[in-house]
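S., here's the first fold you wanted:
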Amino acid sequence: TEARQSPAPTKLALVGGMVLDGYEAPPIHNAAILIDGERIVKVAPAAEVTIPLDYTVVDTSGRTMMPGMIELHAHLILLGHGNYGEWFPWIAKQGPGTLTKVMELAARQLLNAGVTSAVDLGAPLKESLDVRDRIAKGQIPGPRMSMSGPWITRQGGGMTDQFGGIAVTSSAQAAAEVEKLAAAGVDVIKAHSGLTREDYKAIADTAHKHNIRVHAHVYAEEDVRNALEMGIDVLSHAGSAGTAPPYSQALITDIVNAGRPVVITAAHRAWVYPDTAAFPERLQDPEIKKSTTPEIYAEIQRSLRNWRALGYFQRTDREMIFRERGVKQFTESGTVLGMGTDSGTPMNFHTEALWREAKVHVDMGYPAIKVITALTRTGAAILGKTRDLGTIEPGKLADIIVVNGNPLYDITALSHVETVVKGGKVMKKP
């Protein structure tokens, strides 16, 4: 069933399935997880657990229980439409409230896909905070959202205007814009394109004064190095698995030694394009139709009618040449990896982006158990929320998903999320 508004928290026992706890520990088989209110109180083999009479039992036999997944690069204002230049005018034409409606639909899609926490990196401020706060109050279903609001960039015009970004002309202005965003209540800052070394420093220093982390949109080696050395917290895209040849060994070594997290967002062009060529039927997935409105679904389908010719994919043939080396430079070097997908971008639907990203990492030789960690415990660390999120253990918030299959054997089991528990509340059930 669909993700829904939050029911009252209760006492829950998830019983029978295998537990992957997020720590890369051996699985707990035939396990039981006891949840009281929002939090986990016990995790153990079911044979060792006495379930109190006032607990509601959810049978997870034959399934895998794991922490809710953490998506570190989402765009709720996008739903996979093929052309930003047509999508945003179409939304405007539908009338006020449509952008918020789109964001609500995206949030529901993410939650249904097993994403219990997500970072939105670029959208208008008012709508971003409104959707985040209504999810937090349980008024609409969605992951725990960390919102950047508008990104900060040196490149104005088209894309910046469409996404509600802020174009700056000096490092002082960049710092001032961070101050304004912090005062408005954003959770993270997004540093976008065209920024100088001094800009990164000004943005990072100002954000850190407010205890806010900065995610940077970086591709070129010089930008990655500047962001790394000037204190940016998360390197997002970082080559995006093929928009540039692999980085120098010196840069990779410095990223690894700094322990600086990288979120590759590998799948969204260099893999999604050939995967769609092999199976164009994915564009008509009934899950997309079911989780949008008829009007939105029709507009998305219209935009993808000639998907091979979309401007978004104009460099993809070049990206595909470097895609494997682009990922392996990180998976083979000991880089701290989080999982993010740029979900919502053309053909990159919230409903499936994260399991596709996970599959790319596994296909490139990253062990499935490490992918699970990247999706959970590392994601929580990147958010600065390890006290509450990322693992299944007593005291943590009960953000737990139940998937059909064993993701350690076949990572695409993550595409079969049957049950979603968020803060002890069942948000989706089979």
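And the second, which I think is the more interesting of the pair:
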Amino acid sequence: DVREVAARLIDDGELLEFGPRWARNLVVGFARIEGSPVGVIANQPHHLGGCLDAESSQKGAWFVDLCDRFGVPLVVLVDTPGFLPGVKQEQAGVIRHGASLLRAFGKATTPRVTLTLRQAYGGAHIVMNSRDLGADLTLAWPHAKIGVMGPRQAVEVVNRREIAAGADADALADAYAAEHLPVRVAAQAGFIDEVIAPVDTRERIAFALEAAR
């Protein structure tokens, strides 16, 4: 539950959450870090595996705009395998609403820190306040995985002929993950500023937000 992670980063573990029953795969709310107000926006793996969909994109865009209007710094906790696929999502306007979340982060001027907890793939990595959208600081925990797509999906595209010929898809996926997805690869490419230990997270975020004010 990403709320348990947030509780260890914010003052007294107190999060004033908005819309907990709406788009449960995204948690948003107000809190304080070292006494200063922040907005927390976080993927929730306990619902839909943390995938972004049309509703969560709307919820996220609304909250980012709200925080930006009042100058409330944002702490973004990322743990998502990507956007939820399917015809229903296409009919619900997932591309349009996903773009609205991207636009909200892209035009926000309030200080923003992003922390990748476990995984961030594809377009979902980008729209969750990536370096390319102007995040002031992008952090990640040591075992995080960041890439264009998950390993199994990647090898089904890249190695489809080998798999069709009988190659072990699981072994190929493991090899792809080991080569392309470790957080050090993203850090070397400039997508992550710092890889930090979980125990240092609260202190590092507090320092970054104070420096960005």
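Why I say that: Residues 132 and 185 are 16 Å apart (CA to CA). The mean pLDDT is 94.

Talk tomorrow,
H.
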